[in-house]
Structure formats: C-alpha cells, structure tokens
Design a protein that fits this description.
By secondary structure, the chain is α/β, with parallel strands linked by helices. Helices cover 40% and strands 16% of the residues. Strands 6-5-4-7-8-9 form a 6-stranded parallel beta sheet, sandwiched between helices. A 3-stranded parallel beta sheet has the order 1-2-3.
Length: 308
C-alpha cells in the first residue's frame, strides 16, 4: 500500500512540517510503527523551487514524490487523487482512535557527504546566519547591505563563535543577489572561522547546519523558524506589522518564538525600529554563549552519530 503525505507552502513551512512533533509527518512516523509495510510518497505543492532535495533519495519516501508549484500546478495536485493513494491526513481524520497514534519526528535525512560536513561543526560553538528570505520585505540583507552583514558576522566572531553563512539557494528569493553579498564579503570569508555556504549545496544541508549550530540569526525565514522548532536560540529580524503575531497564542511559529523571547532564548527586532540592532545582538550572543547546549533532541546529531 502506498500512502501520500502532503507538504504545502514555502521552504520554512515544509521544513517545520517534516521535523516538528506537531504535524502530519510526526503522525507518519508513528503510523509507520503500526504499519511497517506501507510505503510513503511525498506530494509537494510549494511556492519555491528549492525543496526537492529534502525528498530526493530520502529513504522515508520509498514510493518517491511528485513536485508541483503552488502558483501554476494546483490543478495537477488535485489530480493526484485519481491515482488512488490515500493521504495520511485523511487516514488520520477518519480514524476514531486517532488520538492514540504515536508521534515522533521523522529521521533527518543526510547523505554521507552532508553528514561529514555537519559532523565537522558539531563539537564547535557556531552561529548560523541567514541574510535572506522568500520575499524582499523579509530579507535582512536588503535592509543592511554588505557592510551591515560584515558587522553581524564580526559580532559573532568577536563573541567567540565560528560562523556558518546559509541561504541563497532558491530562485524564489526576491531582490536577493547572493553573488553580490559573497563578493562583498570575500575578504571576511577568508577568515578560517567563517564558513560560506551561500548559494552552495542544498537546503537540506543548510537546514542540518542551522539546527546543529549553537544559535540561528536572521530574518523570519526557513532556518530561524526551523531552529526555533528544534529548540535552538534564535535572533530574528522582522517587519513591524508582524509584531502582534509574536504576542498572540494562536499564530504558529510566531507564537513559539514569542514564548522563547519571554524565556530568554529568542530575540525579535523590527526593521523599522533599527535594521541593525548590533548592541542587542552582541548581548544575545554573549548571554547565550554561557548556556550549555543540549543536543539530545537534535535529529541531525542522532543521524550523524549513527553514520560515523
């Protein structure tokens, strides 16, 4: 039997849907315990072009995947129903005993080369920095430019961290010239403590680097969201109109990050107030450096330990 698993929206939503404990992927992992002969097939309907690597070769999805762009392929997605494969969402909703379905995270899939890259950084204190986002309004680099990006990186280095530069892998990003920032930072990236992955490798590797880092810094985007879901400290830059969401109880990732702000493991700042709140960032870096990092719940750590 083949069961479809539907993933919709942008890279951040799909990453959180794959690796959170509160979604259909978690149910998939539990359902597989009860029905080990079932094969799963991912149905991807997305606004971005960069999520395919999350599913390509992933042993969880032995029946493969289909890939549709949200904007122009919604009709094709509906036609998936004609293949006769049930959706795990529908199986869950139709089961009167659904609350008894166990939940645990899907394995975080990495190939051997990716696992080796991530393992290199696990013993280190690292900061993952992501200057981009899926649209121009949320993109930090548009607000601070190359000089501001250099200031952020130097702040992390001065606090004693090594730096992982992420992003630039999707054509969806609006007004994000990843080549420009790389050229602007060329001298800084010669520092052996700065590891530049902008525009290189896949979002799958970038995601693993983000959640294996000591903290994640960037706009409200895929990697800061995933870091928050998987219990990493995050320092988030956001448009001011989003401010009420962080204080509301029912706004998903915004509410989660808002809770972490109260707990002291997240910071949220707004472009219109100060696009480069460097003093707040330095304080956050120093304060979180003093806290021990618990990797026991990191799916990346678990899979690397199994591989190496």
């Amino acid at each position: 039997m083949i069961v479809n698993v539907l993933y919709e929206a942008g890279l951040g939503d799909i990453l959180m849907s794959m690796y959170s404990l509160t979604n259909y992927s978690a149910l998939l992992a539990g359902y597989h315990d009860q029905h080990p002969d079932v094969q799963y097939r991912a149905v991807i309907c997305t606004v971005t072009d960069s999520v395919e690597s999350l599913f390509r070769g992933n042993p969880v999805f032995k029946a493969g995947y289909s890939y549709h762009t949200w904007l122009d392929d919604r009709t094709a997605l509906i036609k998936e129903q004609s293949l006769g494969h049930p959706y795990i969402q529908d199986l869950y909703n139709a089961d009167p005993h659904r609350e008894l379905w166990p939940r645990h995270r899907l394995p975080f899939y990495l190939d051997e080369d990716e696992a080796t890259i991530v393992a290199r950084f696990l013993p280190l204190s690292t900061v993952a920095i992501h200057f981009f986002a899926g649209d121009g309004e949320r993109t930090w680099i548009n607000q601070i430019g190359g000089d501001g990006a250099s200031t952020v990186i130097r702040a992390a280095l001065d606090a004693g961290y090594e730096v992982l530069l992420l992003g630039g892998s999707s054509n969806r990003t609006v007004n994000n010239d990843s080549r420009h920032i790389v050229e602007h930072l060329v001298e800084l990236t010669r520092d052996p403590r700065v590891h530049n992955y902008i525009g290189r490798h896949t979002p799958r590797l970038h995601s693993a680097l983000a959640i294996s880092a000591s903290m994640v810094i960037g706009p409200i985007s895929c990697y800061t969201s995933l870091g928050a879901v998987l219990n990493r400290p995050v320092f988030v830059m956001a448009p001011k109109w989003q401010a009420p969401k962080y204080a509301a109880p029912d706004q998903g990732i915004f509410s989660l990050i808002g809770t972490k702000v109260i707990e002291g493991t997240a910071g949220v700042h707004y472009f219109s107030d100060d696009p480069l709140p460097i003093d707040s960032l330095r304080e956050f870096l120093d304060r979180l450096k003093l806290q021990s990092r618990d990797d026991s719940e990191s799916p990346v750590t678990r899979i690397i330990k199994r591989r190496l």
